[in-house]
Amino acid sequence: MRLCFLVEEQYRHDGMPREVIAQLGAWGHTVDVIRPGRALLPLTSALTAGDHDAWVLKTVSGGPGLTLLEAAAHTGLTTVNDVRAIRGVRDKALAAVIARTHGLPVPVTYAAARAQEFARLPEAEFPLVVKPADGSSGRAVRLVRDPGELTATDHEPTTGLLIAQPYVPNSGTDLKVYSVAGELFATERRSPLHPGHAVRERCVPLSAEVARITAETGAAFGLDLYGVDVLYGPDGPVVVDINDFPSFRQVPDAVARVSAAVLRLARRDPGALTAPPLPVPVTVPAQPAAR
């Protein structure tokens, strides 16, 4: 097969996707790499030539790569993930609405162009977690304990929307669940809101409940390669973030698994508009304790 990877400079040296690209090459496939922030791309000819079996995106939110992937999809080329699914999770305000309409357990979400606007919320909603709607990798996520903290302007973004959600009390450990085209893997890591909390990153048992939530998340958004951040709050698991093509850290044989998944997904009919089937959860009987 011949594949095209769109890779932003931020991820140029990351194992995901650099090692996946190397693995696909070692298996005899041709992989072209385009760096959207530095490449000169003959757009119309590159997309209409149909030289690639699929285009794969590993880029930052708000980067130029997504537009290129959308252009590829518009010409009928296969994309990994489905381009509409990527747009749905890259905008966290949009993602919150999609998740709620599908009955997923996500916090109530507020949106504003300036953080100060959240001071108008009832005090019962505090503390709040405030973050950019186009953020990624925990960038600019902060815990706001009371309305008075919102008077500061040093955290204001130059452009774009902010979202705020009531803080879910938890132990300071995030559960990151990865889906590799239907295979689910749960890992623990430190919460960006609790930088002083020591957590050893590791794979952990995946409960049937969280497996179901993760599978339903993939089906709701139409994702194949994705990650879901879950917290155990007082009322059970809560989804606090969704990412397309994440790092897959701590996933056993991640490079081989993701590479094989990319090949399977690339063989889908070009231009297919139907969402992928509901992933089959991979569960472990042990039930994690509420946190």
TrEMBL record:
InterPro entries: ATP-grasp, ATP-grasp_RimK-type, ATP_grasp_subdomain_1, CPAse_ATP-bd. PROSITE patterns: ATP_GRASP, CPSASE_1. GO terms for molecular function: ligase activity. Coiled coil: none annotated. Keywords: ATP-binding, Ligase, Nucleotide-binding. Residues 96-274 form the ATP-grasp domain. Pfam families: RimK. This is RimK family alpha-L-glutamate ligase. It comes from Streptomyces ramulosus.
